[in-house]
Protein 1
Amino acid sequence: MSTLVFFVGLYVLISLGIGLYAARKVKTSKDYVVAGRKLPLYIATATVFATWFGSETVLWTSSTFISEGMGGIIADPFGAALCLILVGLLFAKPFYRGNFLTIGDFYREKYGRTVEILASIAIMLSYLGWVSAQIIALGVVFHALSLGAIPQEIGMVAGAVIVLTYTLFGGMWSVAMTDFFQMVIIMVGLLIVGYYVSGLLPEGGNIATVVGHAAENGLLNPFPAITVGDAINYAGMFAFVTALLTMGFGSIPQQDVFQRVMSSKDENTATRSAVLGGSLYFLFAFVPIFIAYSASLIDPAMVQAALGEGGDTQLVLPNLILNYTPAFVQVLFFGALLSAIMSTASATLLAPSTMFVENILKPFFKTVSDAQFLRIIRGAVVVFAVFVTLFALNSDAGIFEMVENAYKITLAGAVVPLFAGVYWKKANSVGALLSMSFWIIAWVALEITNPEGTVPPQMAGFLFSIAGMLVGSYLPKYLKLEMKPKSEM
C-alpha cells in the first residue's frame, strides 16, 4: 500500500469517526435537521464554506480558467460567493426569526400548501445533479488514488456509502462537525500545496509571475466583448449575466444554505457566518486556480496536450500534483480534494431528504411522534442516497454541467417567489403560482425549441417568472378577488 493511499484512507476514517461521534448529540428531529440551532460562529462559517467548496471548485473552476480565463468562471466562484453573501445580508435574519425548519416552510407560510409543494419539488429536483456530481467526483478520486485498481463505478458506490454513514446517524450535527474538520484540511492543505508548487516555477517565479503570464494570455478579463465584428455582442452579454445569475441567484433558494442559517445559535451568527463563509469561499477558490495554472509554466507541454483535441483540462491539476510533488504534498492535496467533495456531498444529501419529509410527507402523518419523524427522515436519506448514486452511475454529464443545471431550475422557478415573499408586501399565492407557471412555459419551450439562443432558457424563465409574480399579485385587486389570509392557507 502506498503512503498516499494509507494517509488518505486514514483521513476518511477520521472523518467517519468525527461524524459518528457528533451523532451522539442527536436526540430530536430538530437536532438532526438544524443541529438544535446551537452552532457557534466558527462552526457555522465552516459549514457554509465547506458545503460550497466542492469538486467543481477544485477541478472544474481551475481547469476552466486554463482554457477560458475569468470569463469562463463567472458562475463559480463569482456567482457562488455572491449567493452566500446575499443570503447573509438579505435573508438570514428574516428566516431565522421565522423559525422555519426548511425553506419549504417559508413558501407554505407565505403562499399556502400548493406553492409549498411546487417549490419544494423544484428545489429537491435541483439537488439531483449536485449530489450526483459529488458522487462521480468521489469515484474519480478513488480510481486515481488506486492507480486504476478500483473501477470508477466501485469508487462512486464506496464514496456514497462513506458519506451516507455519518450523515445518516448524525444529520446536521455530523455534517457541521465534519465540515469544520474538512475546512481546516482544505485551507491548510491547499495553501501548503500552493506554496510548494510556487517553488517549482522556473527562474525563481512567484505568484506575480503566474498572474502576469495569465494577463499576457488575456485570461484576466471577465467581461465579454461589447461588439463582435460590426454587431453588438448580445449573445455574449446575455451569457455573462445568465452565468452570474444562475449561480448568484439560482442557488439562493436552496435548503442546504438555509439549513446552515437556521442551525446558527442566533440571528447575528446566521448573518455573519453566511457572509464570512461566502467571502472565504471566494478567496480560496483562487488557490486551486493558481496551482493549476502554474502548470502552464512548469509543464507547458502537458497543458497544451490537455487543451488539444481529446485532452481534458480537469486532469491538469491532479497530474501536476502526482508528477511533480512528493508524497506529503500529494496527501495534502488529495485530502483537501476529498474534504471538498465529502463536505458538499453530505450537505446536499441531507437537505432534499429533509424537505421531502417535512414539506411533502409530514402533512399526511399529522399524529406522528418526533421520534418517528426522525426515523422517517433517516429513511429518506437512505432512499435519496441510493437514488442519486444510481443516477450518477448512469449519467454522462460533466461535474460542473450537473451542478449548473441544478441551479437553472431554482433560478427560473423559486427565486422570484422567495424575493417577493420577503420584500414585497403585495406578493400573494396567485402571483407565486403564475410566477411558476410562466417559468415552466418559457423555460421548457426554449429548452426544446432554441436552447442555444441569444437569450438562454433559464434567463427567459426568470424574466417570465417576474412577469407572472407581477400579474398575479395585482390580478386579485382588479378582479376583486378575496385572498385568504395566510393563516387559513
Note: The chain has a mean pLDDT of 87.
Protein 2
Amino acid sequence: MQLADNRTLEDPQTESIEKIAKEASHNAVKNAFNHGRSVTIQQGGYIVKKYPNGHIEVIRKVENSSVTPEKRRYQL
C-alpha cells in the first residue's frame, strides 16, 4: 500500500511472501551444500561463490547494483 508521502505500508501478504522467499532461499543453499555443491550469491557489493567447506571465491564486484542486499522487497 502506498501512503501519501511515498512511504509504503507492509501488508500481511507481502510479509508472508518475504518469509516464504527467505525460507526457500535458505533451504536451497542448505540443499546445495548437503550435496557438495557451491552457490553463487550477492554478498555486499560482490558476486561470490560459496562452497560447503566455507571457502568463498569472489567472482566480481557489482557496479550500481539495483538490489540492496540488506533489505529486499518483493512485489507481485
Note: DSSP finds one helix and three strands in the chain.
Protein 3
Amino acid sequence: MPYLEVLKVSANSKPKAVAGALAAVLRAHGSAEVQAVGAGAVNQAVKAIAIARGYVAPNGIDLVSIPAFAEIDIDGEERTAIKFLVQPR
C-alpha cells in the first residue's frame, strides 16, 4: 500500500489552514487521510475537506471523501476517531 499522509484535526484547527495543508498533500501524494476525534474536530475536518475541494478544482481534481472509523491511541487510551480518506474521483 502506498504511503498515506495523515492529517490530524482538532476542534481548534482552522479549516482554511487544514485545507491548505490537505491540498498540498493531495498535490504531492495524490491522496490523504484526515483524522478527527470528537464532534467539534469532525466539524472542522469536514469544512476543511470542502474548502480543499475548491483549492484543487482549478487543477482538474475532483475530490471525494470516504468516512470510516479508526481506533487510535491518545495518551495510552484507545479512542474512536473518524477518518476521512480523501482522494480524486
Note: The mean pLDDT is 93.
